[in-house]
Amino acid sequence: MKRLVSPFAAAVVLMASLVTAQGPTMFKLGTFERAGRQFVGVVLRDSVVIDLAGANAALPSPAGNVASPVDMKDLIARYDAGVRGRIVQIVTSVNSASGVRPDYVYDLKALKTLPPIMYPTAILNVALNYVEHSREMAGLNSGPPPIQPGAPLPGAATKETTSMPGIWERQASDGRWNPYMFLKAASAVIADGEPIRLPVGRDQVDWECELGVVIGRPAARVPAALANDFIFGYTLENDVSDRGGRGDSRYGSDWLVGKSHDTFAPMGPFIVPKEFVADPRKLRVRFTLNGQVMQDADTSLMIHDVFEQVSYGSHIMTLRPGDVIATGSPAGVGSARKPPIFFKPGDVSVCTYEGVGTLTNPVVR
Fold first, then answer.
1. Which CATH class is domain 123-364?
2. Which H helix or E strand runs over 35?
3. What's the predicted TM-score (pTM) here?
4. Which tens digits make up the pLDDT trace of 11-57?
5. Where are the domains of the chain?
6. CA separation for the pair 216, 96 (Å, rounded)
7. Where are the beta strands (DSSP E) in 81-185?
8. Contact 49, 108 (CB under 8 A)
9. Do 86 and 63 touch, CB atoms closer than 8 A?
10. Environment class of 171 (CB within 10 Å of its CB; exposed 0-12, middle 13-18, buried 19+)
11. Quick check: helix, strand or coil at residue 268?
């Protein structure tokens, strides 16, 4: 009698062979809910989720006992102290299984996806970190330049630009302006699939598709050359922005009004550990609104790369496991277009970074 092999069994046999041939299978990490219970999950092939606590309890642990993470921050903090090794063992076991799927393995579509980190202690966002985005926000991508003749273009240092003692030391050859960061409220974080809610009376709400750097261990005054040691992995953040202003000109831009409304920080859907991202400085970026491409760029176009950003932020505040740095938006935002395009109810926002994932959110009033 011919034996029937389920698609799941065939897939796991194939993946097991890849584990042997190429090293650990790529996995992502996320936070999920099923039947009212939240758990940290290991995501395979963007379609299957392993309940990490369930698998840890069910499978023998040849490397010794490793307590299951209570949440994503706990996983990140203990990743290099046994958790990573345990995840690799569990993934290998699941990929080597045949027959009936273990009861701690689910289809992604059967689960509710939550924000991967609930919630970052700090979210640091980087302003104007791509030259073309800096130009478009200054009005230079259409029409005559609205700046003084001979003045540096956006992204370049002025004659008056100096080091920031104790925070950012400039090299004599550095022609860039200094980094600029602001805090975004963790209360703005929502998950993949959750709606961006347009605030009452605010009709100039914009998108910014950004790569999120997830901090892996306490980082204080870290040199850029060592910053990778303090990075856990990468996720996505849509830095949703209210361009409507505050109604007066006090103190310039109002970053609280502009950036921290509820639902203005879609994040996820998952975290990719840094070992699976060959070079975060060479990732394709793509944002679509209702299927139309609005942003199409590459992280190589950043003014300050991810390692410089970790260094800069860590010279201002101690970064902790699970904190996120959103690394800036490329060109193509709606407010810089002629005429401007802003979110409206019924829109679908899709932000993609190559090798990291795709973050999709509907827009509602």
1. alpha beta
2. none
3. 0.91
4. 333 343 434 445 689 999 999 999 999 999 999 999 999 999 999 99
5. 7-114, 123-364
6. 30
7. 105-107, 112-114, 123-126, 181-184
8. yes
9. yes
10. exposed
11. strand
